[in-house]
Amino acid sequence: MVMKSYRKTLIALLLLILSPAAAGNLTQRDEIKHFVDGMVERHQFNGPLLKQVFNKINLQPSIIEAMRRPAEGKPWYQYRPIFLTESRVAGGLKFWEQHADTLARAEKKYGVPAEIIIAIIGVETRYGRHTGNYRVIDALATLAFDYPPRATFFKSELEHYLLMAREEQIDPLKLTGSYAGAMGQPQFIASSFRSYAVDFDGDGRRDLWDNTDDVIGSVANYFKRHGWKAGEPITAQVTIKGKKYNKLLSKGLKPDSTLKEFRKHGIQVAKQYKNTQPAKLLEFETEDAAEYWAGMKNFYVITRYNHSALYAMAVYQLSEEIRQQREAKVSKTAAK
């Protein structure tokens, strides 16, 4: 039995070694041939050179496994501690101190608070320290051609990535990122890079890997372009009374009610928030009982970065902690 098992394992390894993907012959696959032909026809890529690129791609089964267990699948009480840590807050304070002028310039131009920009970068990559070890082209190709549930989306992102690499004069085989193909300090996917990345320091390049000015400006531009309103509220915790509030719990993240309706349904909201404020009732699972929050339009904008209420709440709460600690530090310094 042991010998039979060994032989099966050996045969499986030989088949893997001799498979077209492992042998560098990805372009023998019909769907990849079709994709390459489409890039040549639609965007005038050089066919033979693009085939050479594809034959250097390594499909990664571990990427598919990672896609099947995202952190957003956790309940809030398990998700929150991942991002609300002393080290991440301290890192945010240091980042603010180091890049205060650029953050102030971005806030002035785009209307997005410095602490929100910082929290995004902190949640995504711990301020640029963990940007991902997968080759972006490997990640996108794996998900485009070996992950049917999201194949259409990732084929589009692979197309955007190859266009981005050509536009920015970058070797498409060199860049690394997350298992989902997100890149740089702010973890932009390729379509977002092409649409929202900015050259914020005026050096003629959009660099989201090593140029923090461009990173800050690009995150702020992303939020502005998705509808961020300067000075508007983001979210507020609310108190539930009775059972009528259940009528306002629904799927989706976009505000679909108003605070006037909240109050009519027995939901207590702080007085400073106007009845006309659009809002979405959000429920977050804790170990003891659920928490309820009113997600305003700016909260919804945060979810455009990652379509998860858990993600947006983590960004918001991290930003608040960083802001409060910075204000306390500034006040303490001024009092001396």
What does the model show?
The chain has 15 helices and seven strands. By secondary structure, the protein is of the alpha+beta class. A hairpin with a 6-residue loop joins strand 6 (278-284) and strand 7 (291-295). The model is unreliable at 1-23 (pLDDT under 50).
Figure out the total of helices.
Answer: 15
Q: Which stretches are poorly predicted, pLDDT < 50 over at least 5 residues?
A: 1-23
* Average pLDDT metric: 92
For the largest sheet, list the strands in their spatial order.
Answer: 4-6-7-3-5
Share of β-strand residues: 5-15%
Backbone structural class? alpha+beta
The dominant shape is globular
Number of strands: 7
Helix content: 40-55%
Largest sheet: 5 strands, antiparallel
Please give the oligomerization state of what you see. Answer: single chain
Instruction: Output the radius of gyration.
Output: 23 Å
**What is the H/E string?**
HHHHHHHHEHHEHHEEHEEEHH
User: Roughly how many Å apart are the termini?
Assistant: 78 Å
Strand and helix map with partners:
Blueprint lengths: L1 H17 L11 H14 L3 H8 L6 H7 L8 H8 L2 H13 L1 H11 L3 H12 L8 E2 H11 L4 H18 L7 E2 L12 H7 L15 H14 L9 E6 L16 E2 H6 L2 E2 L9 E7 L6 E5 L1 H7 L5 H27 L1
Antiparallel strand pairs: 1-2, 3-5, 3-7, 4-6, 6-7
Helix pairs in contact: 5-15, 6-8, 6-15, 7-12, 8-15, 9-10, 10-11, 14-15
